[in-house]
Specification:
Elements lengths: L1 H49 L28 H6 L3 E5 L3 E6 L4 E11 L8 E5 L8 E9 L14 E2 L10 E6 L4 E9 L4 E10 L5 E12 L13 E6 L2 E3 L10 H8 L8 E4 L2 E5 L3 E6 L5 E9 L4 E7 L3 E3 L4 E12 L2 H10 L15 H18 L2 H15 L1 H16 L1 H11 L3 H15 L8 H19 L44 H7 L3 H15 L7 H18 L4 H38 L4
Antiparallel strand pairs: 1-2, 2-3, 3-4, 5-10, 6-7, 7-8, 8-9, 9-19, 10-17, 10-18, 11-12, 11-14, 13-16, 14-15, 15-19, 16-17
Helix pairs in contact: 1-13, 5-6, 5-10, 6-14, 7-14, 8-9, 12-13, 12-14
Length: 615
């Protein structure tokens, strides 16, 4: 009995701690990040008002390392104005559109087709990459660093010449620049039908002396993404170096934005690492920009923060190339810039030999469970056409898988309920002698063949499933803006209704006041939607079927658990709350069926005893 009591206390205390952690740490931290971003934007605007514009500084490199980010102009332009400032090569594929800046020869303009910024289908499509000089500049670039001899190499102000046309699948584009001192540089871009670019740079030495050049590839982002909020999903630098994944987890992750900013601002080589092949880049919740080195190339990788320009950078630096007079040399990198679709990333892993590429999706410690669940949901979605329905089907599958265990559990709980009068008699008989009561109860359980801890087993078995689904709804692009029915337009977002405005009957929106100091956090936690209330009710109804614990403290804990979980899950993804409510409903039906079956067997046994033995 004492073991069961400790088990129940552990479950309840864990739930309370998790809820308190969300209340005291996660949401305040997210609000702090939003406030910090607004403060940075205000400081930047004030600086722009008092400082004249400056042209971007040329990229420089020391010690053979990839160059640091070029300076952002102080007077930022709109994205459209920045795009119009320089000549460009258009990009058009089935899934992306954008352009390559001929000044600098970099990939800095990409828009993801079919992915809107909000659930409103008329909202703008997501702009993944933006040019230097625009808010939130974000780009990918390859180049050469001058080695021994100090050859003149292309820089951010270099104006390249294009061979014409639009970059599209099956139609590559080549940029050319002559340094006027015997070296002719070329950058050839090709792209597949999804999000993978191949960038090959070549140099022809038409001079009379050998030259040494060092290839590099980098991804640079100025500031944090506008929708960044620290939470369960890793965002920041990510890589696979030497066959090992870097940049996962949420506690003390040296590759997160915060860690990179605090630990590499004064030491950009802190995360420096040599590798053969691999990939490195910057990841968001749903998007990824990464450079991929050839598998046989020896590279030096870094991930660091540049405080001068408020920029985050990941880069590869290759081995020096010695190019004799009259000879040529080339170096190539691939660049992924697009959506983190699990099936597509897995395909790239297998067909393009990009190691652990699918792990750029932060599936968490239960990745071996989360990935199959994601695969199953996607397959069911293609059949039923709604991810909400797919969730209901998944819940049924999980219940079927746990049916034997759950049956034993519910039968044990039902028997426990029938034993409550005998347990009450023992408590009355032995008074305050807890040791004797526990001894007699254990003997009673043994006689009646009841396992008092069996009722908790299904809950423990489902913890990994619940956590995997928690990750699934927070990280997978398939769940982003996926509707259910009625008011649920996005299964990856919390239920938008709120009890504070009587679910829309009162014409005000609690979310509009969530940022108000002092009451914002209170409003956030009191803003409970319809589905969380449904989940809380089904949890309460299920617990009503369970035997009341003989200990008053345990009984009180069981009574408040539905309330705790209602508040705790109210701000989780709606899909997760729907799963929990449906799971509770199926559990109630299963438990009621077992209870009726046991009651019927008990009645038959009593009727048989009343008739007596047959003659």
């Amino acid at each position: 009995m004492e073991n069961k009591k400790n088990l129940i206390l552990f479950i309840v205390i864990s739930a309370v701690i998790f809820g308190v952690w969300q209340f005291l740490y996660v949401i305040p931290y997210q609000e702090k990040q939003v406030a910090l971003q607004k403060q940075q934007q205000a400081e930047q605007a004030a600086q722009q008002a008092s400082t004249p514009a400056t042209a971007p500084a040329p990229a420089t490199a020391a010690g053979g390392a990839a160059p640091s980010a070029v300076a952002q102009p102080v007077e930022l332009k709109s994205r459209a104005e920045a795009l119009a400032a320089n000549p460009r090569v258009p990009i058009e594929t089935p899934r992306i559109k954008g352009s390559i800046d001929l000044r600098g020869g970099r990939l800095d303009d990409l828009v993801l087709k079919g992915y809107q910024e909000t659930v409103d289908p008329t909202s703008p499509e997501v702009a993944l990459l933006s040019p230097s000089g625009a808010p939130g500049a974000y780009f990918s670039e390859v180049g050469f660093i001058a080695g021994a001899g100090g050859a003149k190499v292309p820089d951010p102000d270099t104006l390249w010449q294009s061979d014409g046309g639009t970059l599209s699948p099956g139609h590559p584009v080549t940029l050319t620049w002559d340094n006027g001192a015997g070296l002719v540089f070329k950058r050839s871009f090709s792209v597949d039908e999804n999000y993978l670019f191949t960038v090959t740079q070549t140099v022809d030495n038409k001079g009379s002396q050998p030259v040494e050049l060092i290839p590099y590839s980098r991804v640079v982002r100025f500031g944090l993404p506008k929708d960044f909020a620290a939470g369960v999903v890793h965002e920041g630098a990510i890589a696979v170096l030497g066959g090992t994944l870097r940049g996962t987890g949420m506690f003390k992750n040296p590759w997160s934005y915060a860690s990179i900013k605090s630990e590499t601002a004064d030491n950009p080589d802190k995360n420096k690492e040599t590798t053969q092949g691999g990939w490195i880049g910057i990841t968001d919740k749903y998007w990824l920009v990464a450079q991929i080195a050839p598998n046989d190339a020896n590279e030096t990788a870094r991930a660091f923060y540049n405080p001068k320009y408020d920029s985050y950078q990941t880069d590869f630096t290759g081995t020096p190339l010695k190019i004799e007079a009259g000879a040529s040399a080339s170096a190539g990198y691939r660049v992924f810039a697009g959506v983190k679709e699990a099936s597509l990333l897995t395909t790239y892993r297998d067909t393009e030999n990009i190691p652990l590429f699918e792990r750029s999706i932060d599936f968490g410690v239960y990745w071996f469970l989360t990935e199959p669940l994601q695969w199953f949901l996607t397959k069911v979605y293609h059949v039923v056409g709604n991810f909400g329905i797919a969730i209901l089907c998944l819940t049924i599958l999980v219940k079927l898988a746990m049916f034997p265990l759950a049956n034993k559990s519910y039968m044990s709980m039902s028997k426990m309920k029938t034993l409550q009068p005998k347990m009450a008699e023992l408590k009355e008989k032995y008074g305050d002698d807890k040791q004797r009561i526990n001894t007699e109860m254990m003997a009673l359980y043994k006689r009646e063949k009841v396992n008092p801890a069996a009722g908790c087993l299904p809950m423990f078995v489902q913890i990994p499933v619940f956590y995997s689904l928690y990750k699934l709804f927070n990280i997978t692009i398939e769940m982003r803006h996926a509707p259910f029915f009625g008011w649920i337009k996005d299964l990856s977002a919390p239920d938008p209704t709120s009890v504070l405005n009587l679910f829309g009957l009162i014409p005000w929106h609690p979310a509009d006041y969530a940022h108000v100091a002092g009451i914002g956090l209170v409003i956030t936690y009191l803003s409970i939607g319809i589905w969380p209330l449904v989940m809380g009710f089904t949890m309460w109804a299920q617990m009503r079927l369970n035997p009341t614990p003989p200990d008053p403290v345990q009984a009180r804990m069981f009574q408040i658990m539905p309330i705790i979980f209602t508040f705790m899950l109210a701000h989780f993804a709606a899909g997760l709350v729907i799963y929990w409510a449906w799971n509770n409903t199926l559990s109630i039906l299963q438990q009621r069926y077992i209870m009726r079956k046991l009651d019927k067997a008990k009645e038959q046994h009593q009727d048989k005893k009343a008739v007596g033995p047959s003659a």
